[in-house]
Specification:
Strand order of the largest sheet: 1-2-8-3-6-9
Order of helices and strands: HEEEEEEEEEHHHHHHHHH
CATH topology of the largest domain: Jelly Rolls
CATH architecture of the largest domain: Sandwich
Distance between the termini: 83 Å
CATH class of the largest domain: Mainly Beta
Number of strands: 9
Number of helices: 10
Oligomer: single chain
Radius of gyration: 24 Å
Structural class: alpha+beta
Number of domains: 3
Length: about 300
């Protein structure tokens, strides 16, 4: 009986050791993957402010929390190196896949609905229009979606950036990143592309977007827009959400805060900005700005 107990005890210890080895290996692997991902993200900081951002990310199984709906004051260059999905820019949905490049100018709402059946890898640059001292022409005016399969010279520049991110220290990599992003922008500017972005936007959604742009300085709500466009509130909201994948109220707030951010950076006082955007109470404006940007509106003003 004692022999049997010793045997089972020995088997138990062996199993525990194997489990420990497995979890130690898993922990080490997880740390390695985390370090690899972390090393492929870079915020370019100037005067204590995040001026620009670049990232390279690979996901064997893409998760939906990677693709939040947003708009910003920067220009975004987004290259898919693996995967596919639907890119939504201001309600226009376009199927995209490997080597498709999206250029999103400032103030355009967008979201990528990735196909989670495939691995997803992408390279993203995000920076103010005047961050690089070159004229990027029409790239800053309207969204562009192009496939780079036949533009190997542009893909080669992206490849050089990825190689540098894996071999150089942060300071040297930042210099290479500056150089090749400028090369990419010049190549994109001087290459004739056929814009592959869908031009099909729901007619009512287009009218809503236009109304918001034209009345951004006024108090805006669902009732006002529905009345102005002669449709019911429920139809207005349902149509907008179906096209944009975001609620109308949320979109209005984001659009107003985007405009507020520009005014604050131009030196206007926060209280003045709130009034210019149709807010009757400063507290409502303050809370909305904090929710979108994470900092008080006063802190955004240039001194």
């Amino acid at each position: 009986m004692a022999g049997h107990l010793f045997y089972f005890y020995h088997i138990k210890q062996v199993i525990i050791q194997y489990i420990a080895v497995f979890f130690n290996f898993y922990f080490i692997l997880s740390c390695f993957l985390y370090i690899q991902i972390y090393n492929n993200y870079m915020f370019l900081v100037e005067d204590g402010v995040h001026q620009a951002f670049w990232s390279l990310r690979y996901d064997e199984v893409a998760s939906s929390d990677l693709f939040y709906r947003h708009m910003h004051n920067n220009i975004e260059i987004h290259l898919i190196t693996k995967g596919e999905g639907i890119f939504n820019i201001e309600g226009a949905e376009t199927e995209v896949s490997t080597y498709d490049l999206m250029i999103i100018p400032p103030h355009f709402y967008h979201v990528f609905n990735v196909n989670k059946s495939y691995p997803y890898e992408r390279i993203v640059f995000n920076f103010p229009i005047d961050y690089y001292e070159i004229d990027i022409g029409k790239l800053s005016e309207k969204p562009l979606i192009v496939n780079l399969s036949n533009h190997l010279e542009i893909l080669e520049s992206f490849k050089k950036i990825v190689e540098a991110s894996n071999t150089l220290n942060a300071n040297d990599f930042e210099k290479i990143l500056h150089l090749y992003v400028q090369i990419i922008l010049i190549e994109l500017k001087n290459t004739a592309f056929e814009n592959g972005m869908s031009k099909s936007v729901n007619r009512l959604t287009a009218s809503i977007l236009s109304f918001i742009d034209d009345h951004i300085a006024e108090p805006l709500d669902v009732t006002t827009i529905a009345s102005s466009l002669y449709v019911s509130k429920s139809h207005l909201q349902n149509t907008f959400y179906k096209s944009m994948k975001i609620g109308l109220k949320t979109y209005i707030i984001q659009k107003k805060m985007d405009a507020a951010h520009i005014m604050l950076n131009d030196g206007m006082y926060a209280l003045e900005v709130a009034k210019k955007l149709g807010y009757t109470t400063y507290s409502t404006f303050y809370k909305s700005y904090m929710k979108i940007y994470g900092v008080p509106p006063k802190g955004a003003s240039r001194k």
